[in-house]
Design a protein that fits this description.
Length: 375
C-alpha cells in the first residue's frame, strides 16, 4: 500500500508507516507519475487534485488536512470513485484567535473602542460563528450574513450583504471559495462592492484570496476611500502585490489557521479518513506531541487601573502577537511559502492560564469565555 503525503503536514510521520509505504513530498512536487500507483493522498492546499494529477491512478481517497478544498476537483473525483474529505472546523479556534488578535491590534493602533463598534461577519460556519462570539465578548455589536444558512434556517438572525456594508465598522470574511452558483464568492468584494464601502470602514479577509479583488482593494486604499484593510490570503499567492501590502494595516502569509492545535486537528482528521477508506486500524488515532510555544503557558495580568479592553488585549496578545507575523512578511515578501512552511509554534487560547489580580468578575468571565483558563 502506498500513500503520498505533503511533507509540511505536522505530526503525521510514523502514524501510517506500519501499514503503508509513505512518501513525503512538497505539495507542488506531487506529480501524476508519482501518484499513479498510490492508494491515498494526504494533502494541503498547494496540491491541485484534478484529472491532470489523478487520471489513470489507483488513488482511492484524498484527505486534505485543511478546511478549504477548492484545490480538489470534487466533481471529477466523485465521478471517478475517489473519496475526498476535508477537515471542517479543524482550525476554527485558530482563526478565531487570529481575528481576535487582529481586532485588538487594530484597536490599539487606531485608538478604537471596540465596545462602541459593529463587526459584520460574512460566512457564519465553524469559523465565522467563533469569530462572532469573540467579537461579542469584546463588546462589539455583531451582524451575521450567511445566505445558505438563512435559506436553511430562516432569515431571523441574519442580514443581507448590503446591510453588512451599510451598518458595519469592520467587515470580516469567512466564506468558502465558490466560482459559480447562487453563493459564488469569487470576487465577492469586487470593484463595485468595494466602492460601496465608507471611508471609515475596515475590511478583513482570512478566507480565500480571490474572495476580494486585490486590484480594486489597492485602488480603494490608495485613494483613502476606505479606512483600511487586513489580508491573510491573497490573489495569486504565494506571489503578492508589494504595493497592496504597503497599504494594509496587517498582512500575513495565509497563516490564520496555523496554530499547532489546528494543524494537529487537521492531521488527525486526515489519518482517520484514510484509515476508514483503506481499512486500517487507526480510527481512533489522534495527533500527539504538540510542542510548547516560545511564551509562557501561565502568565499574570495586574488589572489595576486598566479598562476591560486593555486587560483582554493583554491576554490575547500574550497568546498571539499578530504583529510579528505581519512584520516578518513585510520584511521579506518573497519568503511567503517559507514563512508558512516554517511557521513558529502558536498555541490557542485554551492552552494558556491567566492569573488575574486587581480585576473584576466581568474581566475574568470574559477571559474564560474567550477560552483562557483563569485563576
Amino acid at each position: 500500500m502506498k500513500i503520498i503525503a505533503d511533507n509540511k503536514i505536522p505530526f503525521l510521520r510514523g502514524a501510517l508507516e506500519p501499514y503503508a509505504d509513505v512518501v513525503y513530498l512538497p505539495g507542488k512536487e506531487t506529480t501524476a507519475e508519482l501518484v499513479r500507483d498510490a492508494d491515498a493522498l494526504i494533502t494541503r492546499t498547494r496540491t491541485a487534485c484534478n484529472s491532470s494529477l489523478l487520471e489513470g491512478s489507483s488513488v482511492k481517497v484524498i484527505a486534505t488536512a485543511t478546511i478549504g478544498y477548492d484545490h480538489i476537483d470534487t466533481v471529477w473525483c466523485e465521478q471517478n470513485g475517489i473519496v475526498w474529505k476535508n477537515a471542517p472546523g479543524c482550525n476554527s479556534w485558530s482563526v478565531k484567535q487570529y481575528v481576535t488578535a487582529l481586532l485588538v491590534t487594530l484597536a490599539r493602533r487606531r485608538g478604537l473602542n471596540l465596545a462602541g463598534m459593529t463587526l459584520g461577519v460574512v460566512g457564519v460556519g465553524n469559523v465565522g460563528s467563533k469569530v462572532a462570539e469573540s467579537a461579542s465578548i469584546l463588546g462589539m455589536k455583531v451582524l451575521l450574513c450567511d445566505p445558505p444558512r438563512a435559506r436553511a434556517e430562516g432569515a431571523g438572525g441574519f442580514v443581507s450583504l448590503d446591510e453588512i456594508i451599510s451598518r458595519s465598522d469592520i467587515i470580516t470574511l469567512h466564506v468558502p471559495l465558490q466560482k459559480e452558483g447562487p453563493d459564488a464568492s469569487w470576487h465577492l468584494f469586487d470593484s463595485e462592492r468595494i466602492a460601496q464601502l465608507r471611508s471609515d470602514q475596515i475590511l478583513i479577509n482570512s478566507s480565500r484570496g480571490p474572495v476580494v479583488d486585490n486590484k480594486a482593494l489597492k485602488a480603494a486604499l490608495a485613494s483613502h476611500s476606505i479606512a483600511g484593510a487586513c489580508l491573510d490570503v491573497w490573489e495569486g499567492e504565494p506571489e503578492l502585490d508589494p504595493e497592496l501590502m504597503s497599504l494594509l494595516d496587517i498582512s500575513t502569509p495565509h497563516i490564520a489557521g496555523y496554530s499547532a492545535d489546528g494543524k494537529a486537528n487537521g492531521t488527525t482528521a486526515a489519518v482517520r479518513v484514510v484509515s476508514s477508506v483503506l481499512g486500517l486500524p487507526l480510527g481512533g488515532w489522534k495527533a500527539s506531541g504538540i510542542p510548547a510555544p516560545a511564551q509562557s503557558q501561565c502568565f499574570e495580568i495586574d488589572a489595576s487601573g486598566k479598562s476591560e479592553q486593555e486587560v483582554l488585549t493583554e491576554a490575547i496578545l500574550h497568546s498571539y502577537d499578530i504583529r510579528a507575523d505581519s512584520d516578518a512578511l513585510r520584511a521579506e515578501p518573497a519568503a511567503f511559502e517559507r514563512l508558512r512552511g516554517d511557521y513558529p509554534v502558536r498555541r490557542e487560547f485554551t492552552y494558556f492560564t491567566v492569573s488575574l489580580t486587581g480585576g473584576t468578575a466581568s474581566m475574568a468571565e470574559k477571559l474564560s469565555r474567550l477560552g483562557f483558563n483563569v485563576k
